[in-house]
Write a structure and sequence with these properties.
alpha/beta; Helix Hairpins; five-stranded mixed sheet; 3 helices; 7 strands; elongated; DNA binding; translation elongation factor activity
Length: 160
């Protein structure tokens, strides 16, 4: 990877929980089902066996991805941010666009981004444009619908 994989402690805990659930609970259940189905004879038309093997491949692929992401993760606690007057990783930012519409975003790791909840990945175009911004700064962002200008009206970080 050419960039660090920044992630909040909560985001890392979510990745870890998913890994443990897949590895400790779901995978052993599927292995047991596949083993049982394999003992039933003809595997070519055995739905439990075929589905189980397919699901095992999906789980193993996801476990590999989660393992690589957790290994590359650099956990950053936004509550420990030094310069709280500027927008950095973990900041919750209130923006106002040219049409006076307010928007609240929190800059989080790319693995925990969820636009519907206002969580924007650290490497998203809007997050890159906001990095280092202070109150009152204007930032221009190139979006698929065109260019937009935002004013930073509030910056907040979680408390320690």
């Amino acid at each position: 990877m050419d960039r660090p994989n920044y992630i909040t402690p909560a985001g890392y805990a979510a990745l870890r929980a998913e890994y443990e659930q897949l590895f400790g609970t779901e995978r052993p259940q599927i292995v047991e089902t596949v083993s049982w189905a394999a003992g039933n004879g003809d595997r070519s038309e055995n739905g439990d066996y075929l589905y189980g093997k397919k699901r095992l491949r999906e789980i193993d692929r996801r476990l590999g991805w989660l393992s690589r992401r957790m290994k590359a993760a650099k956990v950053v606690d936004p509550a420990q941010a030094g310069d709280r007057g500027r927008v950095w990783f973990g900041a919750t930012v209130t923006l106002v666009d040219e049409d006076e519409r307010a928007r609240v975003l929190t800059l989080v790791g790319d693995d925990e981004a969820d636009a519907g909840k206002g969580l924007v990945g650290w490497n998203a175009p809007i997050a890159r444009a906001l990095r280092g911004a202070a109150l009152g700064d204007l930032r221009r962002v190139v979006l698929p619908v065109g260019e937009k200008e935002y004013e930073v009206t509030a910056i907040a970080y979680p408390s320690a």
